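input
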Amino acid sequence: MDERKAIILGTGPAGLTAAIYAARANLNPLIIEGNEPGGQLTLTTEIENFPGFPEGIMGPELMDNMRKQAERFGAEFFFGAVTSVDLSKRPFRITVNESDEFLGRSLIISTGASAKMLGIPGEAEALGHGVSTCATCDGFFFRDKKIVVVGGGDSAMEEALFLTKFASEVTIVHRRDTLRASKVMQDRAHDNPKIKWVMNHTPVAIKSEDHHVIGLEVRNNENGHTQLLEAEGVFIAIGHQPNTAFLSGQVQTDKVGYIVTIPQNTATSVEGVFACGDVMDSRYRQAITAAGTGCRAAMDLEKYLEGAFVHDWSLTNP
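output
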């Protein structure tokens, strides 16, 4: 079985940036692409907040450019999803598609986090075309338009407040009659005149015409009546799930599942295993911040292979 110096799991901005840096360091990294090569950005349309593109760039194009850049320096790609790993001994054993196996002296985990979706009719078809999971990414495109935000936690309040900078009206829809958000975030949202409320209603379907969202159909939980909330954008803010199930608890995570890293670097609880991007970042979740952590992870991995990296896990509990 072929043993690699470096294996990278995931091909979003973090994984591809790590691949570029690792390849330029002559580590000839093997990158396992995952079931969705390019990550969530391949589901978006125009990206206007990634530095270096004054006119914006399409998400799939950006990811394709990053992949080509990594390939130029010698990165090798393998399509498939990681089904299991064995981190108990070195080299690490990585199983892909339940049958293909690879050995790696070091590992970077950049498998990202998936936004939780509603699972209602019309949602998947409109994703990236009026349905979004990131206000920071897409809010600008809804200037002077009506928007619906679905959710009741702090993230939903933050998304709604951010969107008021652009939208003419933001309606928060929550399936319960009370919010899960902290008191301070609730107060901020209630104090904003642009925000309206539809409580104790369950989203039923997202309606579109000519590939444009026209509203969210909701059902009153008390009487069962349905109504259409007119909107040109629907933002889903019900949380994210880090893609770490395949690790089977071999790397320390927080209670949600995000990988814990040493604060000063990208090292995980397992020496020789590093993490970057949304799989370890529950706060920012931006392409540019993910790319930054990908750079750090590759540089940490290079030092580890040189024997110059100090793995001090005690720093996570000062």
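quick obs: Residues 3-115+240-316 form a domain with the FAD/NAD(P)-binding domain fold (CATH 3.50.50.60).
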